[in-house]
Specification:
The complex is a heterodimer of chains A (about 180) and B (about 110). Chain A has one helix spanning about 110-115; strands spanning about 15, 25, 35-40, 45-50, 55, 70-75, 80-85, 90-95, 105, 125-130, 140-150, 155-160, 170. With about 180 residues, chain A is mainly beta. In chain A, strands 5, 6, 7, 8, 10, 11, 12 and 13 form an 8-stranded antiparallel sheet that branches. In chain A, a hairpin with a 3-residue loop joins strand 3 and strand 4 (about 45-50). The relative contact order of chain B is 0.08. The chains are: A mainly beta (about 180), B alpha+beta (about 110). The interface between A and B is large, with 78 and 60 residues. Strand 9 of chain A pairs parallel with strand 4 (about 100) of chain B, so a sheet runs across the interface.
C-alpha cells in the first residue's frame, strides 16, 4: 500500500513536489498562517509539513548524532515513519512502544532533563524503532532497549537506553515483552 | 590510544567539561564516575555499538514492506486498521502507562 495522506491537525502533510527545503509562510483563506516547510525525502519525494511539527533530537540517535531533526509521517496501520529533515534517505519505521511493552518503563533522569520532561512525563510519547529484514518483512523486530522519548509539549526527543533488560530485537509478531530483572 | 595511569579517586578531564573518575577498583572491575554535559551521551561501549548497529539497520526500511509488517503484528495491536489515528497520543493507559519517570540513577547537575 502507499504512504497514506495525513489527517490530524498538527500532523505533517504530504504535498505536491515543489522547491527546495525552506520555510515558507502560507497565507490561506482561513486565518491560520502556520509556517510550512518542505522536506526532501528519498522515499516520499517532497513532503510538506508544519514547521512546528519538527521534532528536535539534540543528541541525534545513538551513534548517529548528525540526525537531529525529524518529522513523523503516517505509514501503515500503527506504523509511522520518523523521517529525517537533515538527510533525505534517513527514515525509520516507528511504532508506539505500548504495542510491544506491557509494563511501565524507567527512563534515565538525564534523558528526561534533556527533553524537559523531568517534572512530568505526562506529555512524553514513547516510540520504538523497527528493523525490517529486506528478505523477510514478517521477521521484523522492534528495538525495545533503546526507545525514543518525545516530549509533545516542546517536541524535543531523545533516544534513551533503558536500564531494564529489554531486547534490541523483539520480534513484532510475538507477545508483549516483559523486562528481565535488572542486573546490578 | 592515550593511556594514563590513575589511582582510586583520581580522574581525567576530556575536553573542557567531561570528567571521568575512578570510583572503585575491586577484583577485575573498575567503577567509573562520569560527569558530562547533558548534551553528551554516555554509554557502555558494547551497548552503544549494538544500538548503533540496530539504528543503521532500522534505517533501511522501505514503504512497500509496511503492510506485510502490519499483518505480522499480533492481533489486538491495532494492526491493519485506522491509519494510525490513535497513534499520536501517549496511549497505553489501560495497561499501566507507557512511561514512568524515576529519580536519577546517576548524578544530576
Amino acid at each position: 500500500m502507499k504512504h497514506t495522506p495525513q489527517q490530524g491537525a498538527n500532523r505533517p502533510r504530504r504535498n505536491t513536489p515543489g522547491g527546495a527545503t525552506e520555510t515558507t509562510p502560507q497565507k490561506r483563506g482561513n486565518m491560520s498562517q502556520k509556517a510550512q516547510m518542505r522536506i526532501a525525502t528519498s522515499r516520499f519525494g517532497q513532503v510538506q509539513c508544519d514547521a512546528d511539527a519538527v521534532l528536535k533530537f539534540p543528541r541525534g540517535l545513538v551513534g548517529i548524532p548528525e540526525l537531529t531533526h525529524f518529522v513523523l509521517l503516517d505509514g501503515s496501520g500503527p506504523l509511522r515513519w520518523l523521517q529525517s529533515v537533515d538527510e533525505p534517505e534517513a527514515a525509520f519505521v516507528v511504532a508506539d512502544a505500548d504495542l510491544f511493552v506491557d509494563a511501565a518503563i524507567t527512563a534515565a533522569h538525564d534523558d528526561l532533563l534533556l527533553i524537559g520532561a523531568e517534572a512530568s512525563v505526562a506529555a512524553v510519547q514513547v516510540l520504538v524503532l523497527l528493523t525490517i529484514p529486506a528478505d523477510d518483512p514478517s521477521a521484523a523486530t522492534a528495538n525495545l532497549m533503546a526507545p525514543l522519548l518525545i516530549n509533545q509539549d516542546n517536541r524535543r526527543g531523545v533516544q534513551t537506553v533503558l536500564p531494564d533488560h529489554f531486547p534490541v530485537q523483539h520480534p513484532v509478531a510475538s507477545r508483549f515483552c516483559h523486562p528481565l530483572p535488572a542486573m546490578v | 590510544m592515550l593511556i594514563l595511569t590513575r589511582k582510586l579517586g583520581e580522574g581525567i578531564v576530556i575536553g573542557p567539561d567531561i570528567v571521568v573518575r575512578v570510583v572503585e577498583v575491586k577484583g577485575g572491575q573498575v567503577k567509573l564516575g562520569i560527569e558530562a554535559p547533558r548534551n553528551t551521551s554516555v554509554h557502555r561501549e558494547e551497548i552503544f555499538r549494538r544500538i548503533h548497529e540496530e539504528n543503521v539497520r532500522a534505517a533501511a526500511g522501505t514503504p512497500d514492506q509496511l503492510d506485510q509488517v502490519v499483518r505480522t503484528l499480533r492481533p489486538g495491536t491495532g494492526g491493519g486498521n485506522s491509519g494510525g489515528s490513535n497513534s499520536g497520543g501517549s496511549g497505553g493507559e489501560t495497561r499501566g502507562g507507557p512511561l514512568r519517570g524515576r529519580k536519577p540513577r546517576g548524578g544530576t547537575p
